[in-house]
Predict the structure.
Amino acid sequence: MQYSPQSEPCPLKFSPFKSCTVPRPIGWLSTVSKQGTPNLAPFSQWQNLTFDPPMVMFAANQLSSGDRKHTVVNAEETGWFVWNMATYGLRNAVNLSSVELSETEDEFQHAGVTPEPCISAPGPRVLESPAHFECRYLSTHRLRGNSNHGWVEVIYGEVILIHVKDSYLTAEGKMDIPKIRPLARLGYYDYTSVTDVFEMRMPNAASMSEQGLEGKSTLG
């Protein structure tokens, strides 16, 4: 099976494009509007960019109406957004937060999670989540789509503060991923959670490469 998405309709009921780049980590992002309304929404285009300093990105499609996502607008207007780790235990709340609500509605209340004040970011983080990044907004890059919904905005941020609950750390100081069970997107209506972990070390890795793999910055 092969086809050109630029000139041919997909021959399958479900587009394989949606389920090849998997699993995708979820950017469960909280922001606050200029008017003070908390916002919470999941994005399945989320990724780390670099570690020294730590920077991240997420991509947000416009709404079919052509309106921009509240998360994007809030990040630009306040200069901040917060990543909350999405987990299997929080899957129902993550799903509820995907509903498109009015910008005046508190999406923490709708999702049934507890707002916890941040230290630097003006908006709240999800208390029930095991880890958070407070991210300072850097820039937005807009890419044209073939429809209103196809337009996408890529938002970049620098991680200013990292929160991790001690109960989700191993004795050697790693994130306890099997205990956390991070939620990930598989495309369509399908998700997974991480339950198995194995280690592979780069053969003959230079010390700088090892520092990069372990995320050690110039600060140590």
Summary: The mean pLDDT is 93.
